[in-house]
Amino acid sequence: MSGLRVRGLRAGYGAAQVVHGIDLEAGPGEVAVLLGPNGAGKTTVLRALSGLVRARGSVSMDGVPLLGRSPDEIARLGVAHVTQEDGTFAPLTVEENLRVAARARPRPRRGVSEDVARVFSHFPVLQAHVTQPAGTLSGGEQRLLALGRALMARPRLLLLDEPTRALAPAAGARLFRTLHSINRHEGTTMIIVEHSVAAVLEVAHRMYAMESGRITGLRTRQRW
């Protein structure tokens, strides 16, 4: 199976192991969601996939191994990670932030203006602040800009850690509708960490339950 394939993933910090040999997968163009309480290890899984923490096991994207590579190498292979802490370049404008992010892709100068317009079509609130320094945006707007920056890299795999964090409920619902549209029309594979089952029902193809660093359940779209 192409797409993302994870087998026996173990990850942690220093001597502390947080993720204990989990298996998960997301086929091409699928959305897999990790659900579970705080401390379950969901964030650590995403960090392991993007090379931000030490990990063992087997991780591949479209048959290409990811473990053991640097975060920059993994990003160049088409993996974009929006963390909970992802910030922006505060002094730069919204548009400048997006254009800078395009430098991470293999052909950074091609189609940049078109991709900026595409991000603005997904997030009109960013277009409304196009010339505004990113540091003056609200927390929710900065989260959207961080996601827009990730999209500028044209990722094949998008890792999202609580994407609705800092967003009001209505804005969070709109964001999931947008993610659903991106997945459906652009075929971007996604791994999303989320707390609410209701929030992800429309977008998810697979839902993994995590607890204490282990997968405790899996449901696929055919079963809900």
Helix content: 25-40%
Question: Order of strands side by side in the largest beta sheet?
Answer: 6-7-8-3-9-10
Cα separation of the termini: 23 Å
Query: Can you summarize the main beta sheet?
Result: 6 strands, mixed
- The CATH class of the largest domain is Alpha Beta
Structural class: alpha/beta
Uncertain runs are none
> Would you give the CATH topology of the largest domain?
Rossmann fold
> How many DSSP helices?
8
Order of helices and strands: EEEHEEHEHHHHEHEHEE
CATH architecture of the largest domain: 3-Layer(aba) Sandwich
CATH superfamily of the largest domain: P-loop containing nucleotide triphosphate hydrolases
Report Rg: 17 Å
User: What is the number of independent domains?
Assistant: 2
Q: Would you mind describing this structure in some detail?
A:
The chain has 224 residues and is of the alpha/beta class. It has two domains: 1-78 and 155-224, Rossmann fold; 87-154, no CATH class. The chain has helices at 42-49, 71-76, 94-101, 112-122, 124-127, 139-152, 169-186, 197-200, and strands at residues 4-13, 16-26, 31-35, 55-61, 64-65, 79-82, 157-161, 189-194, 206-211, 214-220. Strands 6-7-8-3-9-10 form a six-stranded mixed sheet, sandwiched between helices. A four-stranded antiparallel sheet has the order 2-1-4-5, covered by helices on one side. The radius of gyration is 17 Å and the shape is globular. The model has no long low-confidence stretch (mean pLDDT 93).
